[in-house]
Amino acid sequence: MAQWTKYQTSNSNIPANSVWDLAVDSGNNIWVATNQGLAKFNGITWDIYNTANSPIPATSNNKVLAVFADKDENIWLGTDYGHLLMYDQDTTWIDYTTVWFGDIHAIRQDLNGHIWVGHATGLKRFDGSSWTDHSANLVNDFVTSIEIDRYNIVWVGTKVGVSKFDNASQWTGYTAANSALSGNTWVESVTYGAGDDIWVGTRGGIYRFDRDTTWVKYTSANSGLLDDEVNSIAVDADSIVWVANDAASMGTFQNGTWTHTFFPLGVSFSRVITIDRNGVKWVGTQGGLLSTNAAGAGPIYLGAGESGAAIRLEVFPNPATTHLTIAHPRIHDGTVQLFNTFGRLVEKVALVPGATTIGTQGLAPGMYMLRIETPSGVHSRKVLIK
């Protein structure tokens, strides 16, 4: 049974119990956006950044709504009243407040290194020297979430649906008027899944989109989803979908089945969920920060500091029958080894830039271990071959 650890102002140095967003850097530090500033937690100690000891402006009310760790380990934070700052984790802070934003709800980095900022009145992209406003291309200019998939496509959640940008010139919008999105299409979260699909969390349920035409909707009425208001989604390398919602629980979708794990007493309304490099799940709520040892692998993201914020390592299909594909769009050197349950090496191939395929025909059915050796380290994934 999963065990919870609870961090509140009463038992830790977290600056506030109201948590808005979370980020994990390559050192596995947890960055916590709260109602009383930004906190960095290394598992033991807390470093606090607020209006008293950092350039976070007093006009932000100390309310940090969004946080993101980029490929160079810079920490980006967005606040109430539209302040955007970048901190290099040393001494340098850059304040982008002169670029006008509404309340900032989402920050992400694409595979080109560009920073995308979603706010209450639009969407802007920063290429390192200049800003481009993409607000007019959206189905609605109230942006709640941003996701970058392994094809460098930008997915933007808004209060009436989703907008997709191919990172060249083409925008596509999905709303209740032209897609299977229905009911309350206020989108709270957009997440890229391990099966190359897109998960959309809304105030009226959660959707799984195959990127083409098929939408599958899960609600409390037709599945084991406990609460229909889905605020945040994270997907791990075992293809388990983790959901934070309004209820006092964390939802889990695995092998077609929804389950839920209840929070400790006195904690409810989860706003954000993320997975650290060790596979620990972290949930930010209105009543503090939670972590759990619930079963499951680490995130699809390997980490913001490893040669790109959007590094992803995916293995699919899993289970496999004829082949396994290892997708790694930002890793160009290394090897892939496949071991059986006896530890015997049954296949070894060099990584091919972008994606590597291993044939599995002729292998005995059962559990195998993939070992991916790269310049950034060694990464392992369990796979099932039928």
Write up what this structure looks like.
With about 375 residues, the chain is an all-beta fold. It folds into 2 domains: about 5-290, 7 Propeller (Methylamine Dehydrogenase, Chain H), CATH 2.130.10.10; about 315-385, Immunoglobulin-like (Sandwich), CATH 2.60.40.3080. The protein is about 0% helix and about 50% strand. The strands form 9 sheets. A 4-stranded antiparallel β-sheet has the order 1-28-27-26, with no helix packed on it. A 4-stranded antiparallel β-sheet has the order 2-3-4-5, with no helix packed on it.
Kindly summarize this structure in a few lines.
With 386 residues, this protein is mostly beta strands. The protein contains no helices and 35 strands.
CATH topology of the largest domain: Methylamine Dehydrogenase, Chain H
Number of strands: 35
CATH class category name of the largest domain:
Mainly Beta
Q: What gap, in angstroms, lies between the N and C termini?
A: 28 Å
Strand fraction band?
over 45%
- Poorly predicted ranges (pLDDT <50, ≥5 residues)? 301-311
Give the biggest sheet: 4 strands, antiparallel
Do you know the CATH architecture of the largest domain?
Answer: 7 Propeller
Domain module tally: 2
- Count the DSSP helices: 0
CATH homology superfamily name of the largest domain: YVTN repeat-like/Quinoprotein amine dehydrogenase
Integer average pLDDT:
88
Q: Fraction of residues in helices?
A: under 10%
In what order do the strands lie side by side in the largest sheet?
A: 1-28-27-26
| Rg, nearest Å | 20 Å
Shape: globular
Based on secondary structure, the structural category is mainly beta
